[in-house]
Amino acid sequence: MNSIALRGRFVDMSGHEITGGCLCGEVRFVATAPPRRVTHCHCGMCRKAVGAVVATFAAFESNCVEWHGPLARFDSSDRAWRGFCGRCGSSLCFGYKPRPKRIYLALGAFDDPNAYPAGFHDYLDQKVTWLKVDGHLPTAASAKGNSS
Ligand SMILES: [Zn+2]
Ligand SMILES: [Zn+2]
């Protein structure tokens, strides 16, 4: 294992610390390991949830992500929930109930989204027709080791 518990908090020994948060600053997160994958999701539910034409999420192990401030939660279906700031409304994460050990953080909420380019698409069949983004990337379903 590449991390140690320091005063109850996991610190990645490779020095990774990824920070982000909502627009008003009330809810912040720290991830102590790099994302497993970053995916553009084009499904209609993510589009509504984030209010943007594509939702880009970075997948992490839940125990590598520490939250500061009150994360509000909306169960968007039997299988999924959305985390957001109850004060400013920023969309912050997505959770897939059958896989509780994973959390998908909204890349747009990262302090430095430039550091984590997307590697995959999900639900390309639902993509907004005029949107052109990362046309060279594979879909997650066709990619080896699909986990989202
Ligand atoms: Zn906020
Ligand atoms: Zn989606």
Which short descriptors sum up this protein?
globular, seven-stranded mixed β-sheet, disordered N terminus, 148 residues, 39% strand, 1 helix, mainly beta, Metal Binding Protein, Guanine Nucleotide Exchange Factor, Chain A, three-stranded antiparallel β-sheet, binds zinc ion
- Biggest sheet strand line-up: 8-9-10-11-6-5-12
If classified by CATH, what would the architecture of the domain at 3-36 and 56-119 be?
Beta Complex
Indicate the overall shape: globular
Bound molecules: zinc ion
Number of DSSP strands? 12
The CA-CA distance between the termini, in Å, is 23 Å
The percentage helix is under 10%
Mean pLDDT, rounded to whole units? Answer: 89
Query: According to CATH, what is the topology of the domain at 3-36 and 56-119?
Result: Metal Binding Protein, Guanine Nucleotide Exchange Factor, Chain A
What multimeric state do the chains show? Answer: single chain
Rg from alpha-carbon coordinates: 15 Å
Unreliable spans are 1-5
Q: How do the helices and strands follow one another from N- to C-terminus?
A: EEEEEHEEEEEEE
Tell me the name of the CATH class of the domain at 3-36 and 56-119: Mainly Beta
Class by alpha and beta content: mainly beta
Largest sheet features: 7 strands, mixed
Number of continuous helical runs: 1
Instruction: Estimate what percentage of residues fall within beta strands.
Output: 35-45%
